[in-house]
Amino acid sequence: MSKGSILLVGAGLSGAVIARALAEAGYLATVIDARPHVGGNCHTERDADTGVLVHVYGPHIFHTDDVQVWDYVNRFARFHPYRNRVKTTARGAVWSLPVNLHTINQFYGTTMRPDEARAFIADQADTTITEPRNFEEQALSMIGRDLYEAFFKGYTEKQWGCSPTELPASILKRLPLRFSYDDNYFFHRFQGMPEEGYTPMIAAILDHANIDVHLDTPFTPAMAARHDHLFWSGPLDGYFDYALGRLGYRTLDFERFTAMGDWQGCAVMNYGDADVPWTRITEHKFFAPWESHEGSVCYREYSRACDPGDIPYYPIRLVEEKALLAEYEALARGTEGVSFVGRLGTYRYLDMDVTIREAMDMATGFLSARG
Ligand code: UDP
Predict the structure, then answer these.
(1) Where exactly does CATH 3.40.50.720 map onto the chain?
(2) Does residue 351 carry a catalytic annotation?
(3) How much distance in Å is there from the Cα of 291 to the middle of ligand 1?
(4) Is the confidence at residue 247, as pLDDT, over 90?
(5) Separation of 156 CA from ligand 1 center, angstroms?
(6) pLDDT tens by residue, 108-136
(7) Ligand 1 pocket check: which of 42, 99, 147, 152 to mutate, most ligand atoms within 8 Å of Cβ?
(8) Residues 108, 302, 313, 349: which is the catalytic one?
(9) Residue 347 class from Cβ within 10 Å (0-12 exposed, 13-18 middle, 19+ buried)?
(10) Cα(337)–Cα(53) distance, rounded to whole angstroms?
């Protein structure tokens, strides 16, 4: 006999991981998603013409330090080793990211060794900023004005649609600064790509006798009444019908184009100049380097304010928006029978591994509270 019936809104990572844990514990889990596929914004799809595996909602590279999370995803997909190596085009040249010894030497026309570069950058950095209050202060205190203006200012203005002085410092803390030639974009021990993409992996997580998945199915409040508990991975403000106003999200527009051969020669090319309207171009065949394809599928990526009806991608979390967020968080805490999960449900800039970790913990907490 089932222990209860649970509704999960959203068939992305959060919904799938929680549904699986509850299903394995004997609950009946109904997962609904308004879109025609599982996987949320991690959705991948093979392009019919070229055979290239396309990251339909932009690039997703799996990386983590969390052994349990790494074991978890490996249960549901075969992972291939992958190193995210990002380049950026700025001021008429191509540079290595994240900012590393190569970038620094190339940028300043020097041949510094690690200690010399460390001392040099410390000299460039603004030492009057001891507690960076926003993205710009974080950058100035870390790498100084020259590198900030070349690689971060323009890109960030395009990506977030506001001044970097209005953004939290945490966004820049995502990126390393290296005094070596290591150009791995991430610090994490485990990094890889699922062989057939994220959608089959998430479908495998959802593949359990106690899980029912309904696609093309928008949420209606009447559905909640038929279940014992609701896990909501849609936008936090959306659950409350935007009653207190809208939290800011960025959405992305992708200009898709195809080519023969290799178009740019790498998976991700950022564009740091403010006068280039796109933020980056992704060439999807390079996300699956173990495959080979004659044709190529590329996305030119543009970021803009998310209007009603657009797909939200990035919670902006403007420094000045904190009060509204706190009000929604208080509403969420006071809403019985509903748990808010994931990037949209908690309005935080979460990576996939953290999303999975939080979903696992959320399910464990739920199960132990129910005895
Ligand atoms: N960023 C930047 N220039 C770059 C790459 C990143 O200014 O070439 C900033 C930008 O504000 C971005 C943030 O660093 O939003 C985090 O970058 P990341 O590559 O992690 O962004 P994501 O891939 O999640 O969009």
Answers:
(1) 5-83+192-248+316-370
(2) yes
(3) 27
(4) yes
(5) 7
(6) 999 999 999 999 999 999 999 999 999 99
(7) 152
(8) 349
(9) buried
(10) 39
CATH superfamily of 5-83+192-248+316-370: NAD(P)-binding Rossmann-like Domain (3.40.50.720)
Which residue, by CA, sits nearest to atom 10 of ligand 1?
A: 156
The verdict on whether 343 is a catalytic residue reads: no
Q: Quickly tell me which residue has 């791995």 as its tokens.
A: 184
Is this prediction's pTM over 0.85? yes
Q: Tokens 């403000």 correspond to what residue? A: 237
Angle at 152 between CA 149 and CA 157, to 5 degrees: 100
> Residue 205: CB partners within 8 Å, gap ≥ 6?
16, 17, 19, 20, 76
Query: Phi first, then psi: what are they for 268, rounded to 5°?
Result: -130, 120
Q: Kindly tell me if the per-residue pLDDT of 262 is higher than 80.
A: yes
Q: Angle at the Cα of 266 (from 74 to 299), degrees rounded to 5?
A: 85
Query: String of b and e for 318-339 (b: at least 16 CB within 10 Å)?
Result: beebeebbeebeebbeeeeebb
156 lines ligand 1 (CB under 6 A): yes
DSSP 235-246: -HHHHTTTTT-P
C-beta separation of 31 from 156 below 8 A? no
Contact partners, residue 337, CB within 8 Å, separation at least 6: 224, 228, 229, 230
